[in-house]
Amino acid sequence: MERMPTDPPATLAAWLRTRSDEQLAALLAARPDVARPAPSDVVALASRLAVPVSVDRALDELDAATLQVLDVVLLAPTDGLPPEDLPAALPEVPDDVLQRALGTLTTRALLWGDDVLHAPDPVRRAVRHPAGLGRRALDLRVQLPADLPAVLAELAPEEREVLDRLAGDRPVGHLPDTTGTASTPARRLLQRGLLARIDALNVELPREIGLLLRGDRPYGPPRLRPEPAVTSRDPEVVDRQAAGAALEAVGRVGELLTLLEEEPAGLLRSGGVGVRDQKRLARALHVPEPEAAWLLELASAAGLLDVGGPHRDEWLPTRGYDVWREQDLADRWALLASGWLGSVRLPSLVGQRDVAGKAANPLSPDLVRHTAPAIRRSVLATLAEHPAGSGVAPDELVALLRWRTPRRADRLAPVPGMLDEAARLGVVGGGVLSSGGRGLLARGEDGAADGMRGLLPEPVDHVLAQPDLSLIAPGPLVSGLADTLAVVADVESSGGATVFRVSEASVRRALDAGWSADDLHQFFARASRTPVPQALDYLVDDVARQHGRLRVGAIESYVRSDDHGLLAQVLSDRRTAAAELRRLAPGVLVSGLGADEVLTVLREAGYAPAGENPGGAVLTRPPARPRAAGRRPGSESQPAARPLSGDELAATVREIRAGDAAVAARRGEAVRQVPGVTTASTLELLSRAVREGVPVWLGYVDAQGSGSQRVVQPVSLVGGFLQGYDERRGENRTFAVHRITSVALVEEEDAAG
Amino acid sequence: MSDGPLIVQSDKTLLLEVDHPLARECRAAIAPFAELERSPEHVHTYRVTPLALWNARAAGHDAEQVVDALVRYSRYPVPHALLVDVADTMDRFGRLTLQNHPVHGLVLSSSDRAVLEEVVRSKKVAPMLGARIDEDSVVVHPSERGRLKQALLKVGWPAEDLAGYVDGQAHPIFLEQDGWHLRDYQQEAVDGFWAGGSGVVVLPCGAGKTLVGAAAMAEAKATTLILVTNTVSGRQWKRELLARTTLTEDEIGEYSGERKEIRPVTIATYQVITTRRKGEYRHLDLFDAQDWGLIVYDEVHLLPAPIFRLTADLQSRRRLGLTATLVREDGREDDVFSLIGPKRYDAPWKDIEQQGYIAPAECVEVRVSLDDEERMTYAVAEPEERYRIAATAKSKLPVIRRVLERHPEEQKLVIGAYLDQLEELGTALDAPVIQGSTTNKERERLFDAFRSGEIKTLVVSKVANFSIDLPEAAVAVQVSGTFGSRQEEAQRLGRVLRPKADGRQAHFYTVVSRDTLDSEYAAHRQRFLAEQGYAYTIVDAADLAGPGEVNGPDWVDEPAD
User: Is residue A386 included in any domain, yes or no?
Assistant: First the structure.
């Protein structure tokens, strides 16, 4: 657009200035961290691009092939390498790969220059061992032997082996841990000056030796994209399998939370759930302990389980759980899946021992890894690149991810665990992304639910009652029926169906919960699609017959007296009606009101009662089930910066260009002011500009605190605000005068420059 | 979503909806690798256990078939983890094989060195192994074959036994199918057993297990040792063999406390074999007395522990276990499987009943309220006395009488566990009592009288738990039992399951004291019967109406005249 026909640019900033708007937008899109807040001009942009953190981040996202191209430039003997030289340096790399790598690097300004490629210094510093080669002998302060090839040729095989190893991917190695002065191959090499000592433990291979050993492949073997063998499976089978896993996960989490509702797990002082609770849950769910840990983690990731209770020392189902259990299966699964995808925790670490030998507990804060969501997403995204029904084996997937982000390879350790979890959830089935998993990746929770819908069974609203007193729900139950059955029967086996068993204890529990024998008969008759067995009806009647032979009631206070006449008087006294007294036994009146209230009423009625020590007051159950406050999952911990939209990119580029132009604009003497302190000269200059209709150059700090420089055609100056038209940005804007840091009149020619 | 008859549960139980059109087909597909656990009216429960999976492998089924059966018939998606687990478990089978080596004899060898290493180092297994031949094989003493298989099963690396069976001394035996023929399920059971070489056939009492044994002998055509629970049942076997096979009186020997005959077919009691004198089993020579081609274990669920050990030594002979239920109260079902062999055949009782081969039975539990005095006695009794007090309550007597009156023309058995109570009942009901101390001669006399209809009611003790054949018993009343033993229940029910000449229904009553341990134990039994598919009704003694009265039986037995 505005490429200057002059000499090639001498600096990164100058080169950036020659880039088109589209190219700048691409740069900002690729390195969004430098785009926020918008840099005021190209120089600011260039300096942000040089920030080490930003460079590291940009490099971390590059694949191995791209990094290898970068290595070639970094290793060029002089600064600057013409792009034409690249194919010769990497003869085994196809041309299109080279071009793509080069495009990636220049787009991200990790290399700059058009005719000659330069690497900015921060990039040089960020790549410690380009192409896996050590520093130059000069930098390592090693005096290499004069005739290096000859010396190398004479080395003993084991010494040569050490050198060969260090000439591979990593030029730094540990010195073997020998106590004596035994001359190990590495030590002999050190003595001969073929290795450089960099600290007490480590040695580094000088670059010259590495290059020599590598021969005609100075940059190592070509880092081409691995082509993993694609496993193909019938997508329908994958989905069915995934649905099986999904059903299992949803069912298990539900059971887990029901258990925790009845008996919450204690919160350890170090956070997390204790081993004893984990064991108890595993036993109750009939699953191995690691499985119980996974379910706890899953429930927590989905926001269904959190710390709560009166003292905030218990793990309880959250309010979200109450909503969740009413949802249909697909939605319930989607919440679990999206909770898992966005979770910053690594459930696979449960049970692993730390350096101190302490095993990590489920839900322990030690399992938080903030990179986890990004890794999970990249794993799924890699699988999603394959068409429905095909995927890659776990180890090949890891190899591919390692190639994609070699600088982050150390973060890939949890990938096998994640794939395992994905399979347990039904996001992945047999190494292939399921429809639900695909939906989850593309459209989050809703997508996941849509992908899984139709694969999961419809809830059933009946059971089959059998003569052995079992009730079989031949599918997931509608939640109302499930709740009722949880009261009147015990779960014996769960899965696709649920087997309930009615026992004396369960019938008693139902009677305790306020059911009558008739209610139970009717319930069984209504809920069962098969005739209710006589034995079941008999059981209900038999238990009901015995139920309630002992009576327990709750009262708040009592009134007792040895004077039965007095009690009779109190009971019949209309003034004491407010005390709600009734006679329980001779000599004892009881009330549902508190002792204080009864005392007050009696006193007001003219009696002289005395309070008694309140031993024996029966406490009622707490009115509501305990719940933790909980949080909505997914809303927090946005793992990666939100990508910039097209509009934002365009606006930012416009901003930079405008700032740049403003800097370049020739201007008169500037009037500077401290922001917030408006000086008379500022005002004078501004009003003159308004009056005469000449553009002004403004230094301005916006409400977010980022500075910018602009050229503005002022229109009015009213009430501390300057209105004007910013030509470069193409917008009418209002500037608060107190945010203006400096003003100058732009001289004569147009401000666009 | 397919609409299969099967629901696969997380705990590896399989629920089979019986009324589903595909149910029969599905049952056939899952039977090889899943144990039938419960077969109540509507939904049957099978369980997939490692043992069952290994047995399936031994019978030539592979993991793919198992997975395919599960996936094909399942109504809902099957959890992948379960399928993987199935495949993994089945994969463990056959890494080790027992083979006959031309030079070294019996040899344990492996295609997977790591597994062999693990096993050789195992403390449980190592003592049974001999010298190492090479990296892949190790010598096994032939007498350790059974024990080794058992131990390997426990460490999770079951061995495939390819060493085969000795044929034993040939002896011609044929079935004489004149006027009768082997029923389909009996033939299937024999075929299943023969194809597998050794194993257990599970059939309900009255379904003709003896014939399965006879047919197996006819298949083996070799000298046979039959182990039975007691002399009476031994004679039963002898009668049956004489009637159904070409065997003659001279060819069948009885080896019991009374007689010690060893003939080509010898019937011995468990008791005599386990008799010890001065700490030594005196009759073990029996096993070596003949080159037996087949050993039949009747009522294998009662197999006493010493015979386990003997059986471990008999691994090269074909073994057939017969039982009505594999439930062992001592939980040693696995030992039966590993020593006798896997289950080769079983069928839901109800299926056989529907085919008309066993009598349909109505199970009724009658609840008796104790009187106040009895309740007080019960309430203050020592815990270990409570069951006896509840079970032998006097209040039961009028109820038992009333139950018997409902069936004036039927052959009735009153079964109990406490001798005092039985004596009392015998006196009160004017019926002879058979108990452990009754001589065999007396027993046979009473049984004959009962069979001929001379005696209508017999009071029997635990001896009824064992194999006695009372073809015409149509009503059984149990008044006390062994702490809700399911095995006992199966045996007692078996007493009335023999098909009746006129296809009449059998009645099985349990008289239980209400609100006591007795009714608690009854609940176990009730569950067991219901799980076998029997209709089970509970009535209050007060509601127990006589024939023709309200709530009484729908029919009245016609007087026989």
Answer: yes
Q: Is residue A645 part of a domain?
A: no
Q: A323 and A255 in one domain?
A: yes
Distance from CA of B3 to the nearest CA of A (A): 10
Is residue A753 scored above 50 in pLDDT? no
- Judging contacts by C-beta atoms under 8 Å, the chain B residues touching residue A497 are 7, 9, 15, 76
Contact list in A for residue B79 (CB cut-off 8 A) is 244-245, 247-248, 495
CATH code at B184-353: 3.40.50.300
From the list B8, B40, B41, the residue facing A495 with the nearest CB is B8
Q: Are residues A410 and A288 in the same domain?
A: yes
Query: Between chains, do B536 and A535 touch, taking CB under 8 Å as contact?
Result: yes
Do the domain assignments include residue A302? yes
Give the per-residue SS3 of A516-559: CHHHHHHHHHHHECCCCCHHHHHHHHHHHHHCCCCCCCCCCEEE
Start-end of CATH 3.40.50.300 domains in chain B: 184-353, 359-543
pLDDT at B556 over 50: no
pLDDT tens string B130-183? 888 888 888 888 777 877 887 888 888 888 877 777 888 888 888 888 888 888
Q: Which residues on B lie below 8 Å from A504 (Cβ)?
A: 523
Predicted confidence (pLDDT) per residue in A338-385, tens digit = 999 999 999 988 888 877 778 888 998 888 888 889 889 988 988 888
Domain span at A329: 230-452
Q: Tell me how many residue pairs between chain A and chain B have CB atoms under 8 A apart.
A: 124
Domain boundary among A527, A546, A565: A546
CB A556, CB A617: distance < 8 Å: yes
CATH of domain B359-543: 3.40.50.300
Q: Is the ipTM of this complex over 0.90?
A: no
Residue A1 has pLDDT above 60, yes or no: no
Residue A705's domain is classified under what CATH number?
2.30.30.100
Same domain as A502, residue A572:
no
Smallest Cα–Cα separation from B31: which of B194, B185, B210? B185
CB–CB contact B10 A470 (8 Å): no
Same domain, A208 and A251: no
Q: What is the 3-state secondary structure (H, E, C) of B99-167?
A: EEECCCEEEEEECCHHHHHHHHHCCCCHHHEEEEEECCEEEECHHHHHHHHHHHHHCCCCEEECCCCCC
* Cis bond before residue A37 (omega within 30° of 0): yes
Q: Do B15 and A497 touch (CB under 8 A)?
A: yes
- The reply to whether A407 and A486 lie within a common domain is no
Is A10 part of any domain?
A: no
- Return the percentage of chain A with pLDDT > 90, whole number: 9
Decide if A496 and B7 are in contact by the 8 Å CB cutoff. Answer: yes
Lowest-pLDDT range of A303-312, B15-24, B352-361, B412-421: B352-361
Nearest to B77 among A241, A472, A539 (CB): A241
Nearest CA in chain A to B526: A468
User: Are A389 and A237 in contact, with CB atoms under 8 Å apart?
Assistant: no
The one-letter code for the residue type at A126 is A
Same domain, A520 and A581: no
Which residues face B265 on adjacent strands?
B224, B252
Number of domains in chain A: 5
Q: How many other C-beta atoms are found inside a 10 Å radius of the C-beta of residue B260?
A: 14
Model confidence over A212-259: pLDDT tens digits?
888 788 888 888 888 888 888 888 888 888 888 888 899 889 889 988
